[in-house]
Amino acid sequence: MAVLFHPPVDTLRKYMFVLPCLFPMSSSFQGDGFQSNTARLPLSSRMVLCALRPQLLKSSTSVGAWGRLLQRQSSGSVYSNIHGFNQEEIREKLLAFPGGSIDLHKHDSGIAVLTINNPSRMNAFSGSMMVDLEEQVRQLENWMDGKGLIVQGAAETFCSGSDLNAVRAISNPQDGMKMCMFMQNTLTRLLRLPLISVALVEGRALGGGAELTTACDFRLMASDSVIQFVHKHMGLVPGWGGAARLVHIVGSQNALKLLGGTLKVDPKFGLQIGLADGVLEGPQAEEGAETPLQQAENWLSRYIKGPAPVIQAVKKVVLSGRELPLSEALRTEKDVFGTVWGGPANLQALASKSKHK
Ligand SMILES: CC[C@@H](C(=O)O)C(=O)SCCNC(=O)CCNC(=O)[C@H](O)C(C)(C)COP(=O)(O)OP(=O)(O)OC[C@H]1O[C@@H](n2cnc3c(N)ncnc32)[C@H](O)[C@@H]1OP(=O)(O)O
C-alpha cells in the first residue's frame, strides 16, 4: 500500500523524539511500497514514518491521521518557521556572545546531570550557552536508556539568568523576541523530555535562572538557596516560558505574588507554596556526608526504579495529562499504554505473580 502523504521532513524531525517512543518501529513494515516511497528521506524520518504506519493505515485518509496524531502529541517546540522563527539565524546571533558552557554527563544509572557552567558570572547564560543548552537537550531527546535528569549550577549556585552583557547588546525588540522564542523552545523541549527531571537549586536562581527551575518536573532547594523572579526589577516579565509554567506549579495567586512582588523564595516558603518539592540537608563537615548532588540523586532514584521504557511511559502520560485537553490526554494515554502492555517488564511482572504489599 502506498503512503499518500509525506509530511515535511523538518516537521518529522521536530516530532521524531516523541513519536518513535510512542509507536515503536516494527520490522514487518519494511520491504514494501511504504519503504520505497520513503527511501529518500533521512533515516530518522523514515523511522518515524514506519512507526506511524499503523496509525496511518487505520485511517481512511492518511492526511487526517497525520494531522490528528500531531495534534495529539505534545510537540517538542512551540515556534517554527510558520511563526517567523529561524533557528539558524538566532543561533548565529547568540554565538556572538560566548562564555561558559552547558555540560552533560549521562550515567549508567539512567540519570543524566546537566550543569550550567559559568561560575565567574554566577552561571549567567551567555549566548553560546543558550545554543549549548539546545544541543544538550537534543542529546537527551535521543537518549533511549535515560530515566532521570538533574539540572544544577556549577560552584554551588544555580543560575543568575541571562548574561546581562549579552542582554544589553541585543536589547532591540527584534533580537529580544528571537532570543525569547529560542529559549522558550529549548525549555519547553527540556520539560517535555521523557525523563523525570529535577532542578537542584543551590545559591541563587534569579531571572532566567528561576525560569529554568520551572522547566523541570521537580525542584529541590539547598537550605540557603533562593529562587527569585527578579524580572520586574529589570522592567520585564519572564519570557522563557517561566510565567506560564509557574502558574501551573503554584497557581495564579501565588504566581502573581512572586512576579508582582519579586519575592525571594527560600526553602520554607518554597515548600509552602509548592514551588519546592524537597529541601536538602545543610552543609555537613563530617566525612561521608552526602553532597547536594548525591542527595538529589537519592531523592530522584525512588521515582526512576525500573526499566527505562516504563519510566519514560510514566513521564509521557503525566506530561499529556498536564498539557493536553482531557479527551486528547486520554487518547495519548491509550497510545502510551499500548507501548508497555505486553512488553518485557509487563510480562516479567505477570510471570512472577508479584504482590504489592
Ligand atoms: C531577560 C531578562 C531575564 C531573563 O532572561 O529572563 C534575566 O535573566 S535578566 C538577568 C537577571 N539577573 C540579574 O539581574 C542578576 C544580576 N546579578 C546580581 O544580582 C548579583 O551579581 C548576584 C547574582 C546576586 C550575585 O551577587 P554577589 O554574590 O554579590 O556577586 P557579584 O555581584 O560580585 O557577581 C559575581 C560576578 O558575576 C557577575 N554576574 C552576576 N550575574 C550576572 C548576570 N546575570 N550577567 C552577567 N554577569 C553577572 C557579576 O557582574 C560579577 O562579575 P564581576 O563584577 O566581573 O566580578
UniProtKB/TrEMBL annotation:
**Which Gene3D superfamilies does the annotation name?**
2-enoyl-CoA Hydratase, Chain A, domain 1
Q: Which Gene Ontology BP annotations are present?
A: fatty acid beta-oxidation
Spell out where the chain crosses the membrane: none
- Protein origin, superkingdom: Eukaryota
Please provide an example of a Pfam family that matches this protein in its UniProt record: ECH_1
Per UniProt, the keywords (alphabetical) are:
Cytoplasm, Lyase
Q: Name one GO molecular function term.
A: methyl/ethyl malonyl-CoA decarboxylase activity
**Keyword Protein biosynthesis in record:** no
A single cellular component GO annotation: cytosol
Describe the function of this protein: Decarboxylates ethylmalonyl-CoA, a potentially toxic metabolite, to form butyryl-CoA, suggesting it might be involved in metabolite proofreading. Acts preferentially on (S)-ethylmalonyl-CoA but also has some activity on the (R)-isomer. Also has methylmalonyl-CoA decarboxylase activity at lower level.
Q: What is this protein called?
A: Ethylmalonyl-CoA decarboxylase
Organism of this sequence? Seriola dumerili (Greater amberjack)
Q: What is the lineage of its organism?
A: Eukaryota, Metazoa, Chordata, Craniata, Vertebrata
